[in-house]
TrEMBL record:
This is Uncharacterized protein. The lineage of its organism: Bacteria, Bacillati, Actinomycetota, Actinomycetes, Micrococcales. Residues 71-106 are annotated as: Disordered. The chain crosses the membrane at residues 32-52. Residues 83-94 have a biased composition (Acidic residues). Keywords: Membrane, Transmembrane, Transmembrane helix.
Amino acid sequence: MHAALTGPVTMGLLPPSPEPGLDTNLVTPGPWGFVAIAFVAVAVILLVWDMLRRIRRGRYRAEVREELDAEAQAEAAMAATNVDDEDIDPDVDGTGEAPANDARPR
């Protein structure tokens, strides 16, 4: 039981020894590995840059669209409230009383 508990501790203290016969050129990525990783990193950076630009453009378009919609609603509200100098109630003059010369038959 004692060896089972001290085994992992002693394994962690010993420096790892490479297997004999392993060629370091076969297990390292080398210059082609660096080129591949650099290409992936540049591609990711360019994709993120393009995505941020598209998101920003979409946000600006949405803001402009909201402003135009608000202006259109304001104009529609003004058009709905304008009476264009039409006489809405011809029986009443500006004083709130009926006009003196009432030509309607009774």
